[in-house]
Amino acid sequence: MHDSVCGPVAAADFSADERAAVYKAIHTRRDVRDQFLPRPVDDDVLLRLLDAAHHAPSVGFMQPWNFILIRDAARKAEVHQAFTRANAEAKAMFTDERQALYASLKLEGIVKAPVNLCITCDRTRGGDVVLGRTHNRQMDVYSTVCAVQNLWLAARAEGIGVGWVSIYHDQDMRRILAIPDHVEIIAYLCIGYVDQLYDQPELQKRGWRERLPLDQLIYEDQWAEHAGISSDRPRPDRAAALPAIPSVSG
């Protein structure tokens, strides 16, 4: 696939509607757990999503990612079995009062989603010395996470749901997908169309945890004991600062 823009790109070439669309994708993105539809995802749509991921920023332009598409039912069943074993272990880690709520959450759509996708990071790509990674070896991993986010936002714009499965033993996933030792597993995603999304994150809606207030997470100039924008500065009005975000039915 080719870039749709050739030559230099203006720094401020987004219209108000285009800016609002970007923020809408960000604010209405959801982690989809099991509400996938049986409708298949066409290859041209998958390629658009993967192309969006491939256009993520990467340290030293090393582009360390690979994409393993999993559509075979038997392979997905193996992954689901690995998840089920690990999920039982995870449930036991929570306190008794949390275990019931945890058990009620449907934390994966491995079998139900028409497409599973494993995104990996090849830590040898680019050689031993990579521009920008000389003093922070994790930058290739961080770059691959940016690819995950690019794909997720593009999927939201396409009306496609994404769920991130993180409950599995690394060695199980390596065995099932034949992933070599020098390649790190970054994300295992379930991908498919959905007919609706929650109007807020499911874990927030189900009472697992609330979103933290932004102004309690902002420090100025250095780490501080108490978060918050300095009292001698005017606090921005978030509602006024961002474009209007249409609500999502849920």
What would you note in describing this structure?
This protein is α+β, with helices and mostly antiparallel strands. It has one domain: NADH Oxidase. 36% of the residues lie in helices and 12% in strands. It has a four-stranded antiparallel beta sheet, with helices on both faces. Helix 1 crosses helix 5 and helix 2 runs antiparallel to helix 5. It is globular, with a radius of gyration of 20 Å. The two termini are 34 Å apart. 24% of the residues are buried. The model has no long low-confidence stretch (mean pLDDT 88). Belongs to the BluB family. Homooctamer.
Annotation keywords:
single chain; 250 residues; alpha+beta; NADH Oxidase; 4-stranded antiparallel sheet; Nitroreductase; oxidoreductase activity, acting on paired donors, with incorporation or reduction of molecular oxygen; cobalamin biosynthesis; oxidoreductase
Instruction: Give the helix proportion (percent range).
Output: 25-40%
Mean pLDDT: 88
- Number of DSSP helices? 8
Rg value: 20 Å
Which CATH-level-2 architecture? 3-Layer(aba) Sandwich
Structural class: alpha+beta
Shape type: globular
Specify the CATH class.
Alpha Beta
Number of domains: 1
Q: How far is the first residue's CA from the last residue's CA? A: 34 Å
Protein name: 5,6-dimethylbenzimidazole synthase
Keywords: Cobalamin biosynthesis, Flavoprotein, FMN, NAD, NADP, Nucleotide-binding, Oxidoreductase
Enzyme class: oxidoreductase
EC number: 1.13.11.79
